[in-house]
Amino acid sequence: MAYVCVEREIGGRTFKIETGKVARLASGAVMASYADTTVLTTAMRADPRPGLDFFPLQCDYREKLGAGGKFPGGFRKREGPPNEKEILTMRMMDRPIRPLFPDGFIDEVQIQAWVLSHDGQNDADMVACTAASAALCLTDAPFQGPVATVRVGRIITDDGEKFIINPTHAQMEFSDLDLVLSGHADGLNMIEIGAAEVPEADVLAAIRMGYEEGIKPLLEMQQELMEKAGTTDKARWSASCVFRRTMSWSRSRISPVTRWPSCGRSTASRSATTPSTRSAIG
User: Fold this and answer.
1) What pTM, to 2 d.p., does this model score?
2) Residue spans per domain, the chain
3) In this structure, are residues 277 and 255 in contact, taking their beta carbons and an 8 Å threshold?
4) 221 and 15 Cβ atoms separated by less than 8 Å
5) What is the model's pLDDT at position 157?
6) Any idea what the Cα angle at residue 34 is, between residues 30 and 38, rounded to 5°?
7) What is the pLDDT of residue 132?
8) Spelled out in words, what is the top-level CATH class assigned to the domain 4-146+222-229?
């Protein structure tokens, strides 16, 4: 894939998405930058495992000290398992994305988000959630996206109350609203909010502002990325398509059913199955 770069100004800072430079063997990979915070996000799709009856979407998000120019010291020099912030970010990545896959789709899909650099002010969680959607848009998976995620805060200025898209850590210390929105072209599909007794009218105004000034530009940017990368044509999945694919997979692993004349009914002999199918059915 050739190098592609798209960018927009979101909340007074430049949001840039690049692809075609690193992780070129992944099904889809993007480098998303917001101010001086950069996240590498990859998406992989593989054929389903035998015996699955659910969609095995896996989202992984990691923040290491190296992203901030530090390294662990003392007796323990290895960083441990994901902390609470990383786990909650994985959930924020999963929730808006999972419903946008067709029913019956059970292919392996794995999303990895790795924070490469952190400027200490612009949080990487919102960048990773949007980058996950952008990486999926570059794969051949039937993802009915894109989606975008932003955070909305509210601070008091000399001109009165002001909503801010993706506020910095310093601004969040003075904000009485912490609103996380995820949405697609048809509307919002995830809202998380923490507030200090903010009126409903103000929350509604923050939601409108976040969608119009934050989510829509990010969706347009991802659409432009797909057009430049040539991944706008996606395979369309339906229930009949899933059924045909499942039957094709079954026939390739199970021998034809034998008919016993004594009882007049069809049974599949255990010896007629392949070793992989035999182990799957026990």
Assistant:
1) 0.80
2) 4-146+222-229
3) no
4) yes
5) 81
6) 50
7) 95
8) alpha beta
